[in-house]
Amino acid sequence: MKAIRYHSYGDSRVLALEETDRPTAGPGQVVVKVAGTSFNLLDAAIRVGIMQEAMPIDFPHTPGVDVSGTIAETGEGVTGWSTGDPVIAFLPPTAPGAAAEYVAVPADLLAAAPATVPLPDAAALPTVGLTARQALFDHLDLKPGQRLLINGAGGAVGGYAIQLAKRAGAHVTATASPRSLDRVKAAGADRIVDYTAEPVVKTLAGEHFDAVLQLVRDTPEETAALADLAADGGAFTSTTIPGPQTARIRVEHVYVANDPARLADLVALVDAGELRIDVAERLPLADLPSVHDRAVEGRLLGKTVLTP
Fold it and tell me: Which residues form a coiled coil (predicted)?
């Protein structure tokens, strides 16, 4: 089979499309014929080696933590899943990933794929959808009627966060650049702040929010200033730079956890028409090195799906 692999840490030039053996299903595993995978910044962080202590990998390594596809083989002890079932999953980051024609997946990580979107596009849901859900409800404990500020809402996590927050009855203020304005508006933000016009904390000076979600890799000082926009007794969480330690508000940090039950909940929302999967770009797997480059340069807009 064909797979994107790298044999050492490095820049995007280490990524190569190679021929390798198709995986087999071990006990408790299935083999998925990949319909789509999607790029996440975590893939690039692992590739350059900055995550090697927390997430050590074996070489050669195939990236891609998101997968959508159909089950091609089931291993010993697998129940509830059959060959031909359309599925999605958030894969363990250190395991061989889905930037390939086939990937072995622990069966207990699977969720049924949404039936209302093309199967390749479903790969745009697992990692960022779970991140948004966990940030809002596990960390910020968002409630109906609360005022939420999402800083950096133009990306994939931001798009899901806006939709989920609005569905929960929150009032959403989202910051975005002009290039992502239409996506943020389509996601349902009540108010959009252009962070390129002036600093967000200046635009929102004097305002306070029940919950603040930081999705931008700002400096610690900028992140602390953003946290100051949380009301007394409010909450702040970040997917990037940890927030300041203060007794005035609750401060947490988001490390996305694999949760197939909650992933299935997100799929149900998609199929009910209450959550939209937004794919900015669809590319062949061979284009993955250029996607890594564009992401590092800040030129990747929204979610990119790659197909074998």
Answer: none
| pLDDT for 300 | 83
List, in sequence order, the alpha helices (H) in the chain: 41-48, 126-133, 156-167, 181-187, 200-203, 220-227, 260-271, 288-296
Chain mean pLDDT for the chain = 97
Question: What's residue 298's pLDDT?
Answer: 81
- In angstroms, the CA 165 to CA 142 distance is 8
CATH number belonging to domain 2-125+277-307:
3.90.180.10
Instruction: Locate all alpha helices (DSSP H) within 38-188, ordered by sequence.
Output: 41-48, 126-133, 156-167, 181-187
Average pLDDT over residues 135-152: 98
DSSP 147-211: EEEEESTTSHHHHHHHHHHHHTT-EEEEEE-GGGHHHHHHHT-SEEEETTTS-HHHHTTT--EEE
What tens digit of pLDDT does each residue of 248-297 get? 999 999 999 999 999 999 999 999 999 999 999 999 999 999 999 999 88
Domain borders along the chain are 2-125+277-307, 128-253
- Which residues share a beta bridge with 87? 69, 112
The superfamily (CATH) of domain 128-253 is: NAD(P)-binding Rossmann-like Domain (3.40.50.720)
Give Cβ neighbours of residue 284 (< 8 Å, ≥ 6 apart).
306, 307, 308
Predicted pLDDT of residue 262: 98
Predicted confidence (pLDDT) per residue in 174-187, tens digit = 999 999 999 999 99
